[in-house]
Structure formats: structure tokens, C-alpha cells
Fold this sequence. Notes:
The protein has 206 residues and is mostly helical. It folds into 2 domains: 19-161, no CATH class; 165-206. The protein has helices at 19-34, 40-54, 65-74, 77-97, 99-102, 109-127, 137-146, 148-161, 168-181, 184-192. α4 packs antiparallel against α6. It is elongated, with a radius of gyration of 19 Å.
Amino acid sequence: MRHPDRPPAPAGICREPNLFDFFHEQVEAAVVDRKAPVSSDGVVYLSTLLVERSHSEEPAGKTTLVELHIQAAQADRGQQVRCYKDLGDRALFVSGFFAESLRRSTVGVDYYVQMGQAAYDRLAHILSGPRRGGGGLDKVFAELAESFGVCVEVLREVREGMETPTDDIGALRLYEQYLTTGSRTALRKLHALGLAPQARRPPVLA
């Protein structure tokens, strides 16, 4: 029986030759599209997270979020750092890339968001404490904790940007999305389909 906070584990998410450059471009474009308050260090962290998780066939891992939290609470500082980072990364990745699977689970996206926020917040405090040694990562984790929901939306846009329409109706909807929002993600997907839409005109004010 599958544990409620373990969604189904799909195959690797991407096999681009240079994964970091690929994901960095996608994350940066999503941040710009959404005008998301994510720093350059935050973009690098999200891109690296996607690279790491793309090599895994089991994004949810064998240990549940609750089990990781218990392990962290009972561990020494070094193990706490590893457990809280794994917990935060997993919660962010799953809620951003596999939100649909969570809708069929006994726990939802809100559960993952709360667990991820708390893990990154705790990690930031550990790395900024008297012993430090975080190399500035405490600020990155503090940002991730504060903007966790925004980062989830950024990853969702990255995921959507990797899904190309397979029929004319899908392409038309994508074109309408570009005309309405000016989304760079939608424009890139149109280009991937061999379509070159005219430059979007700003709306005419009455």
C-alpha cells in the first residue's frame, strides 16, 4: 500500500544534454513571466534542484516527509541539514511538478507547501546560527521558505513549458494565451511547433 504522502513515481523528467542550462533558461523565463520575487541565487537553486531530480526515477523518495521530519528532529546538526534540505527539496519539486498526483492522494498540495516551508525555514536558522558554515545558503533557504508558494508556481510553469500541444486546438489555445498574456513560455512552445506569431500588441485603452 502506497503511503499517502508518496505520489506515483514517473520516469525522469528530462534528458537534455546540458540539463542545467536548459532548466536555468526555463526557470528564468518563468520568473520573468510571473514577475516572481526570486533572486538570481534562487533561480540557480531551482535549476539545480530540477537537474538533480531529473536523474531520479523516484521523485518522492523511499522516505516520507513525516519520517524525514522525525529523523531531522532526532539527529545531530549535520544530519539535520541533510534531512531538512531533502524534505524541502522534495516538497517543492513534487508540489511544483506533480500537483495532479497529489489531488488523488489523502494529502494535498497545501500539506507539501507547509512541510516544505517549515523545512527550509528551519534549515535557514540552522545555517545562520553560531556555528554557521552555510556559505551564504542560509539566505537562499530563507528566501525559499518565504517565497515557497511562488517557487511552486514557477516550477509549474516550467513543467507546462515542457508539454507541447499535439493538435490544432492545443496550438490555438497556446496562441491565444500568448496574445492575452505575452507569456515567453507560450511563445517558445509556439516556436517549437514551427509557428512564428506576430509581435503582441499592447491592449488599447478606452
